[in-house]
What we know:
Layout lengths: L2 H18 L4 H14 L15 H18 L2 H12 L4 H18 L2 H19 L4 H14 L8 H12 L11 H17 L12 H14 L9 H20 L6 H14 L5 H4 L8
Helix pairs in contact: 1-2, 3-8, 3-11, 3-12, 4-5, 4-6, 5-6, 5-7, 6-7, 6-10, 7-9, 11-12
Amino acid sequence: MDPAIITLSVLAVAAFLFITELIPLAVTAMAACTALGILGVLPSKAVYAGLSNSTVVLFGGMFVIGAAMFKTGLAEAIGVAVVKKAGTNEIPLMAAIMLVTIVLSAVSSNTGTVACLMPVIIGICQAAKIPASKELMPLAIAANVGGTITMIGTPPNVIVTGALSTAGLPTFGFFEFAWIGVPLSIIITLYTLFIGRHFIPAKNGGAMDEAALKAAKEEAGAGGDAPKSKVKMWISGLILIGVVAAMALNLKTVPRHTAADPGASLCVDTGRLRQNDASPGMDWVT
């Protein structure tokens, strides 16, 4: 059979499984390239060659840096400060939640951002007698749209940039996504504040929220209720700023993955993150 027909057939099956999620996404991805090798479309050495791409190193480094930011409590501290200043009025609170979530999601894990802000938001909603769902839905929406602002905001942005680089084509700049991401974030925020909020069902937080929160924290490497050190927060913040700045400047001598890897090492070497905490901070499915 023509290799092109085989490839299109495998792609069609993979696309169906990605859409329906009948099996885990990571399994679908690995099975597709394995099938191409077994069917003779790809030589055995090329089946998993993509895993040696520098994009994989970039992912690993940024996941560890993000985990350090959540583990030290920096993300939570930023979220608490912004959200509490907004007060208990539904609309200003919603605006503050979406703003801080968009900013944090642009440079870190969407899951970790949501995990850190959820308990604060649920607590404020209970005190103000506001249905928790009215603020948690905007939180989830903002976490997704915030990732579209920078190259590292969400895995697809990095994957596309890596694919362009591998193909020898001009790549996207670090903040080039912001030309679409920022206007999109503004539009989504305004729509949610003035129109969308009327369609959000009123549901209060409960025991299930706590279970979901614990699972999200563990997945993002943000678990643990130990007292947080302000020094650790500052150092993890400076490491993140340094890595983001190096990526944004797009220095020829410091490729993006080269900036992320030392940043991740610094998080461990300076004690911001224990070695055992770095692995849970990785999104292995990605």
